[in-house]
Amino acid sequence: MAKKTEEYFVPRYKATRTCAVVCDLCQKEKSYPRDVSDWSTNSYDVSEVIVSMNLGTAYPECYWGEITSFHICPECFENKLIPWFHVNGNAPTVEEYDG
């Protein structure tokens, strides 16, 4: 997983935040993301790639688990991951949405 973090100071304690995300395939860096899966370049665009697996246990009163993920930019998703699935006999599910 390629996430860069930085330390910053808030009165009385030191905290850490994500300052950049790096694509695991092409090493493209996206600085100061709103979210680690968001690769958009402005406030109104949506360019989100999520490739992860969440395994765990969930009870009504508690839960625990582990999330395994890759950070992949939209270009690598379209130009590397989708073709890999096609070569292996699979096609993506494409859904449209509006609000």
In short:
The chain is mainly β. The protein has one helix spanning 74-87; strands spanning 3-10, 13-22, 29-31, 51-58, 63-70.
* Strand segment count: 5
Q: What would you call the quaternary organization?
A: single chain
How many domain units?
1
Helical percentage: 10-25%
Structural class: mainly beta
State the distance separating the first and last CA atoms.
33 Å
- SSE order, one letter for each helix or strand: EEEEEH
What is the number of helices?
Answer: 1
Give me the side-by-side strand order of the main sheet.
Answer: 1-2-3
Query: Which overall shape is indicated by the principal axes computed on the Cα atoms?
Result: extended
Which consecutive residue ranges, at least 5 long each, have pLDDT under 50? none
Strand content: 35-45%
Largest sheet: 3 strands, antiparallel
**Gyration radius, rounded:** 17 Å
Instruction: Please state the average pLDDT score.
Output: 87
